Batch of 4 targets.
Target 1
Amino acid sequence: MSDVDGPVVTAVEPEAPRQRPSRPALIELAAALLIVAGLLGILSLVVPDPAKPEGLEGLTILTIVLNVVQIIVGLLVRAGRLWIVDVNYVAILGFLDLAGAAGSSLALLLGLIELGILAVLFVYRSWFDGRWAEPSR
């Protein structure tokens, strides 16, 4: 017989809470592009454009609001919050920029960049919604 009279019981340490993985580089790039594009959109209102058609002064407030919200969405992307809001807003911005691409090469560029950001948001959805925190079974 052995020296042990009963079964050997070992203590199981509780699993430590999982830490959020580091921010992916493409998420960082997407957030930076959204923030910079929003700032450029606001600054473009200050610079006079002789090619701008008359009668669009009323859209200035709408443009400011869209660009401020774009900056906020860029910060939300960087923080990894509100994925569905981020995706929908970037999709709307991409649509608006691509719709205006007939008159501006900058709008075409911004629309294509926003479509790329949209793809990045879909690829890294698991980073946003916490799938990394769930234990796999």
Target 2
Amino acid sequence: MIHEIGIYLNGVLLTNRTYYNSTTLKTDRDLICALISAVEVFYKTTFSQELEYLKGKHHILVYSKKIIKNIDTNESFHVVAYAIVNNRNSSLESYVGNKIRPKLEELLNTFEINYGKYIVEPLNKIPGFSREIDEIFAESWELQSEI
């Protein structure tokens, strides 16, 4: 089950959707994104490779990164899409590699096409992107929206 899906830039949350109400995930989202960003940079710097997911006892944090260029400013940004999912799947590598990561990559592509030029603005101010998150992920997994 997917608990949350979001997009962040430089450790700052741009947009997210929460699908499952869990007391274990009641933490400041900006703090979570900053920590994830720091861990990802540490891992890449230390081991010279990309980190694909973090596995905990109950949850897995899966993420995918894309470099998006703002066509107005010509600046490049490392944008990260993440998903927090239950750690109940016996074939973890297949689940992450074949189901979750392709959806996160699709989410980043959709983000780039529709909102790439607004990359410096918080996406929560841009109407409609939460619906696009739902459309990309809803076809394959149980989602319990809090809205």
Target 3
Amino acid sequence: MVFLAFFRGWVPSIADTVVLRDGSQISGEVLGLDSEKLTLRDPGGAVRLLLRSQISKVLFEPANPPLKIEVRCAAADDELDLLLNGDAVLERAGPLGTGWVDVSEKARNGNNEFRARVRNERTSWAYRWELRVNGKVTVFSCGQPGIKGKGCTCCGLRGDERGVIDRIDPIWVHVDRSVGKAEILGQ
């Protein structure tokens, strides 16, 4: 059985495997495939042409495993902004929260800082936001939104401050795209 894939242009791959009819295998990056030949860059950088008649099958491997990083505000009293590396990814989320926001492309390889910023105009303040990495949810919350006297008392705060509260400790997430993982540091 011959397995062939048809595509146009560049296939961003790292470890494609070409299985020849004699059973031998050649690894590299498939650069092109047409009705007559396959073009392969081997690990040393050399480009090879193989006739399709020599090929039994081609196994394509993705360049990087998928990585999906999403955030949402579950509840805020009065309003929550969530910043990723200093840039707002959620703004003015209120008591009803938000839907999931995909921040996969905004997260950089290496360490990333998520910082909550709350606006409070009356009584106590609180928040609850969630981070979902490849389907696994982690909750970050402080205080009880909507309940007077049950405000957030983290970070040396009383929970009844007014105005913008931006002294909430950040959450650090280390992203390694080469293996498709993001890890919450210090958890």
Target 4
Amino acid sequence: MILSMKFSRPLTVQLIALAYLLSPLANVLQASAASGHDTDTVLGRALMGFGLAGTALVLGGPLAGIGLYSGQRWGFLVFFLHSFGLLADSGVKLAEGSFAYRSGILLVDLAVFTAIALVLREDIRAPFLSPAQRGWRMGQRIPVSGAARVAVESTDGPIARAPRAPVTGEASVSVDGLAVAVTLVNISRTGMLVRWPGSLPAVGLVGRVDIPEAKASFRIRVVRVTEDGAGLAFVDADPRATEAAMIVLVDRR
């Protein structure tokens, strides 16, 4: 699990990194096809004829691929330095060679421009430039649905869940276009538990609860379901109003 979190990369990053890792081989094959010589001959001549700049470009491809895959800022910078170096070198080479050779260079330029455009997308570049581990550098996120209980702590200690008070009475809950008569089970300043007849609502639905006995109405969200009931959280409700409804219902119990 630790390895999968550490090396989780978008497919776009993986493919571009692989292309740059293999770029020296691609250069040899391109030159071989354009010149008509076998790869051994092309490779030998290339090694003999490379200057400092040519050697840096050849070795820079795998380095840029490794840097890009690393997810680190230095890799991001190396990738762009190498890419712009390739484009500058291509501009010089376009003035020489056969039509097939120049066509190959133009295809390489198109691939480099495409790689740059993809890496500059916000969802790809942002994690590279962030000082903190964020985005895809933190590993793949899998969308899920369901209810969960969260324990929150402050510097003053644990924050207790709002106390529930058992109550009786009826209420009407409107969700998903339907009004359902429910029975109150308990209530707090932040929500309530109700006994729900028939098919239970889906977690996440937003609606409204009307409590005639308390002469109150609140916007609610379904946050959990039980075997025969549902937990409803008040949404953007005035705490004074929910506490007043709570007091009325508890007093009438």
